[in-house]
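One thing: could you explain this record?
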Amino acid sequence: MAADDKAARHGAGGRRAAVTPENSVPLIPVAPDGLSPRARRFVEVDGVRVPTEDIRRHRDTWIERGVPAAEIDRAASFQARWGGLALPPAAFYEGGPRMLDADCPEGSAAEGWSFPAGNGRVSMAYGFMIGPDGAFGIHAHRWTPLHAGVDGWVESLALAAHARRWARTVTKITGRDAESLDLDGFEPVPEVQGLTDNWWRGSDSLVALYCGEAVGLDAPRCLEAHLYEGLDEWGLHGG
């Protein structure tokens, strides 16, 4: 099947954005600039964007609490780019944030400042945060950056959805078996901006390595790899 035909089956384009009557926020989002074509399709075809509050209204209150103005501006920039975006569940981390949504920054000058990236879908031992350097990650008793930015997190969701659709077989490997997985001949997938987590591309396979819980919770048994095999050129790249 040609790549253009496969893209059409993904539903790229062809949907007219519905608009909420209250404040004209599109329910079908327009993907932010800078994403890969695959991630743009994922956001616009599978995502929903719902109204969220303007966190700038809390600026004076947060400044009185000692939050630097620059950190409030950083959270507001995140909210303008990503706030209200609800995407399908992630393959790990119990699905990830229900919706990307910033809140009051927390931290100190010594430790750096972070802010919440959105509430989890279920009760978890950690929260999803944007770190001092803009990384997307989880925070339990320690900060564990997963991707260098939220763009990388969204790219990883899009790649997982794409790989599940086109792989002939999907295998989950956990614990020590995942740790010893042979990735000789594979190369990292750059768009996911992998840090603790990463994606790897082989000749006809993709591998997702989810290491965040193993590192952040000191729980090696939580290490998990997803192996997608039997992919053609479209399945390996898909835009």
Observations:
- DSSP finds eight helices and twelve strands in the chain.
